[in-house]
Design a protein that fits this description.
Its EC number is 2.8.2.22. It is an enzyme of class 2 (transferase). This is Arylsulfate sulfotransferase. One of its GO terms (molecular function) is arylsulfate sulfotransferase activity. It comes from Campylobacter jejuni. The protein is mainly beta. The protein has one domain. The chain has 1 helix and 4 strands. The strands form 2 sheets. The protein has a two-stranded antiparallel ribbon. It has a two-stranded antiparallel ribbon with strand order 3-4. The protein starts with a strand and ends with a helix.
Length: 56
């Protein structure tokens, strides 16, 4: 989305993209692209091993 600073208005629809990186990586492992209105995203890091193989 572009923004006209002199008029204080946005130009066109927002098209946010988020790149997710593995720790220490230089290239993104996943790119998330949103479309439409009212979308949101919140990253919540977690351990796959702990989530799917809990200690008993």
């Amino acid at each position: 989305m572009a923004f006209n600073l002199s008029k204080g208005v946005s130009l066109g629809e927002p098209k946010p993209k988020i790149d997710e990186f593995n720790w220490g990586a230089k290239e993104p492992s996943v790119q998330i692209q949103f479309s439409g209105s009212g979308t949101g995203y919140q990253a919540m890091p977690f351990s796959v091993d702990q989530a799917f193989n809990p200690k008993k």
